[in-house]
Amino acid sequence: MAEKGSYTKRIDGRSFDALRPISAKVGVVPNADGSAMFSQGDTIAIAAVYGPKTLHPKNQQNPEKGVLRVHYNMLSFSVGERIRPGVSRRSQEISQVTEWALTPVVMLEELPGTVIDIHINIIQANAGTRCAGINAAAMALAHAGIPMKEMVSAVAIGKMDQTIVSDVTKEEEDYKEGEAATDIPMAYLSNSKKISLLQLDGRIQAKRLIEALDAGKKACQKIYEIQKKVLKESE
Amino acid sequence: MVHRTMAYKITKKNVNDAINLEKRFDGRGLFDQRPVEIEFGVSNKAEGSVRVRMGKTEVLCGIKMATAEPYTDHEAEGTMMTSVELLPLASPDFEYGAPSIQSVETARIIDRGIRESGFVDFEKLCIKEGEKVWSVFIDLAVINDDGNLIDAGALAAILALMTAKFPVYDEKADKIEFGEFTDKKLPLDKSKLPLTVSFFKSGEKVFIDPTREEEATTKGRLTFEISKPEKDEMINAMQKGGEVTFTTDEIETMIAEATKIFKKLKTLVDESLDKAEKENKKKKD
Fold it and tell me: What CATH number is attached to the domain comprising B152?
């Protein structure tokens, strides 16, 4: 797996395709219709689902299908330098791409005129927060009993210089040698084999990108198995 | 996605059918771009400015400069900020008020491509380490939205950057003489020029450069921001938008097309800059 390049060993000693230890749990917010916690290493996300409920104001209702609304938020103390509480341009974008990552699996056509609110909060951050948020949110949707076609699993794939790694940490994101760090958050639908979230920043050749996507699929399948197991055990 | 006018709901099926038959309403093939028109120097107070038309889509970009304190984690680097204004004059779908998510997302995608490619040498925008650096503002204004705003905006942004010149600056007084320009261009590495192409999906077909009507029928897009520092193209940024999903095969097809489109765009940029330079010389002579 290791290509020639400067990144021959991972900073935390994991093998290149290993994920950080994962822990997941549903029902973490009793008031919500569905909720879940998902942690990958030091990154901890909780998600709560409220709905489906009637959408107000009424002019925002869609008579053909329900609406999914995602609110992603990093708690001010979840990172090194304090984040100013409230909405930022970054959090708006992540909320939007998360919504797009989840919408394809939610059977919104069964829920006309309604809204499903998903609130994602990051309690502790060490990279991959949007992916942990998606993993938690997908589980919270299932926990709420929302009709879904399948599960969504997400992971951040990275390329450190020439080496492709799964589930990137903050330290790895800051890697500077050679071609430095490329970060590729993706969400994958394991049953239909489709990608529902794909972002990238850094520098990667076309051929390596396909390799990275394959690594992402494998990692997402592992996450999918954990999500499934936790949901089944909660019944 | 974005609220679109009712008319597009009615024509949606026809537009979709046309794309699936690979016969677009304006006669283009799936990977044909609309004619691009480029005009430099459209606002003389800006440090650099350009008008880009892609078919009937029109975007203005102005570069403004200011001095500022550097970020604490990058004390020897200048800063850059990209913003997009979806002006209500440009479309019945745009409204006044706080920036919409479309505006925020478009700006962030364009910003990411420029930043990640290494096109701008931020260290050369440092005036005094830890104290004073140049801030570059890439301000985009949409004048008419006939689709494909990310690609049009990204093209306008790099063209405006490439023609921008530092304003006259008195370092002691920390005062910029706005409207007076030096001959000094921005520190850009032209070998890392980032170019942007977005693919849109309608049914099972993928195509580029949608009109607003075509865009309204799509479920989503995948944007690539590419540079070619050496012999291989590098993908510097990607973003999937909309409620669409892609298979790896589809992504491979798009990358192959994106490489071809990169070449065309590069030629377009080179030619337009050459032409502008010649016209400038004529003016001086």
Answer: 3.30.230.70
Q: Does B245 touch chain A (CB under 8 A)?
A: yes
- A chain contacts of residue B105, beta-carbon cutoff 8 Å: 92-93, 96
Which residues of chain A are at the B interface, by a Cβ-Cβ cutoff of 8 Å? 89-90, 92-93, 96-97, 100, 103-104, 184, 189, 192-206, 209-210, 213-214, 217
Q: What is the pTM of this model?
A: 0.90
Residue B222 CA: distances (Å) to CA of A22, A132, B49, B50, B173: 30, 22, 28, 26, 47
| Partner-chain contact A209 B234, CB within 8 Å | no
A70/A137 Cα distance (integer angstroms): 9
Chosen for mutation from B95, B248, B252, B260 (greatest number of chain A CBs closer than 10 Å) is B248
- What pLDDT is stored for residue B284 in this prediction? 76
Measured CA to CA, the distance from residue B131 to residue B196 in angstroms comes to 34
Question: How large a percentage of chain A has pLDDT more than 90?
Answer: 90
Domain count, chain B: 1
Asked if B107 is an interface residue toward chain A (Cβ–Cβ < 8 A), one would say: yes
Size of chain A, expressed as the number of residues it contains: 235
Q: Which of B48, B52, B68 is closest to B60 using CA atoms?
A: B52
> How many CB atoms are located within 10 Å of the residue A216 CB?
27
| Inter-chain residue contact B107 with A92, CB threshold 8 Å | no
Mean per-residue pLDDT of chain A? 95
**8 A C-beta contact, residue B220 and residue A100:** yes
Which chain B residues have a beta carbon less than 8 Å from that of A89? 104, 107-108
pLDDT tens digit string along A35-89?
Answer: 999 999 999 999 999 999 999 888 888 889 999 999 999 998 899 888 888 899 9
Which CATH code for domain A22-233? 3.30.230.70
Q: Is A195 in contact with B236 (Cβ distance < 8 A)?
A: no
CA A211 to chain B, closest CA, distance in angstroms equals: 10
Residue B4 in domain = no
Cβ–Cβ contact B189 with A under 8 A: no
Tens of pLDDT along A156-179? 999 999 999 999 999 999 999 999
Interface test with B, best of A65, A93, A186 (most B CBs within 10 A): A93
Radius of gyration of chain B (CA): 20
| Domain hosting residue B193, numbered range | 15-284
Q: Give the helix/strand (H/E) hosting A188.
A: strand A181-189
Instruction: Report the distance separating Cα B82 and Cα A89, nearest Å.
Output: 11
| Nearest chain B residue (CA) to A202 | B236
Q: Is residue B139 part of a domain?
A: yes
Residue B6 counted as domain residue: no
Asked whether residue B39 is assigned to any structural domain, the reply reads: yes
Closest CA in chain B for residue A179: B234
Q: Which of A93, A189, A205 sits opposite B232 (nearest CB)?
A: A205
pLDDT digits (tens, 9 = 90+) for B194-249: 999 999 998 889 999 999 999 998 999 999 999 999 999 999 999 999 999 999 99
